[in-house]
Amino acid sequence: MSQRPRIAVIGSANIDLVSFVDQFPKPGETIFGQKFDLGFGGKGANQAAAARLCGAEVFMVARVGDDLFGPATILNFQKVGIDTANVKQVAGVSTGVAPIFVDPSGQNRIIVIKGANDTLKPADVDAAAETLKNVDCIVLQFEIPLETVYYTIQFANKNKIRCILNPAPGQPIDVKAVANLDYFVPNESEAETITGMPVRNLEDAKACAQKLLASGIRRVIITLGSNGSLLAGSEGMEHMPAFKVNAKDSTGAGDAFIGSFATFLGEGLPEKEAVRRANLYAGLSTEGVGTQKSFYDRTRFEAEWASRNKG
Description:
This protein is α/β, with parallel strands linked by helices and 311 residues long. 34% of the residues lie in helices and 23% in strands. It has a single domain (6-23, 36-298), classed as UDP-N-acetylmuramoyl-L-alanine:D-glutamate ligase (3-Layer(aba) Sandwich), CATH 3.40.1190. The chain is built from 10 helices and 13 strands. The strands form 3 sheets. It has a 6-stranded parallel sheet with strand order 5-4-1-8-9-10, with helices on both faces. It has a 4-stranded mixed sheet with strand order 3-2-6-7. A 3-stranded antiparallel sheet has the order 11-12-13, sandwiched between helices. Strand 8 (137-141), helix 5 (146-158) and strand 9 form a beta-alpha-beta unit. The radius of gyration is 18 Å and the shape is globular.
């Protein structure tokens, strides 16, 4: 690594409640599942964990509830090695939770109950300003209030800090409010929700990326699951193929991509190599079960990267 990047993640922290089923239940139907897993999640927390495991120094800005899950979430951040000075408990609300249902192919359906995540406001960004002004990159998602996301983008732009937005879960947005982003990184469904354009194949993704670039966003990466990702900028577009993996559970793969990409880019790697490495890191995460617990540490990842790039 050429340098150790300092990354701030302003976002969500959830508890993942993962049920593995042979099929998804129909309305009014009760079925038996195969097994259950409980883990630490939330897009913000997952991205922070991926960045930390990849070697970055990570600072989390988040809110958790005053229930059983709140202190456990903060302790988990600390065990991973993430700075928690700006992770606070909020009285009278629950920690965010995410019931997740996974079928035998690894596809998932997720319901997010935001809880304390919805209390993270622009004032909390200001309260963390001294820390944020000293980072190399700020990472954002949509599991916190949009006003906080927009405010943070302005903060990053004003202070000349690289900013990466993962617009997930997908929802309509004020495009002007994200126009000065360095990187806008949706998956196919999120890109479709935001632009109103179908994203069913690579050509659709290119048309969608072009629309996003035309809105003023500097760089767009559309993640395409098993088809890799599309990198788009003013100089053109390039499809970055996925690596072959034995996928078991795709939950958290997008978060693995974001956190690892922010780290690789922050280390000074060329953009295309950072995307390729993030493709592999995300793919490898699907070979395990759950989110953070399925992420590779840097040593294990580098061994896998080397074995797939011989010669």
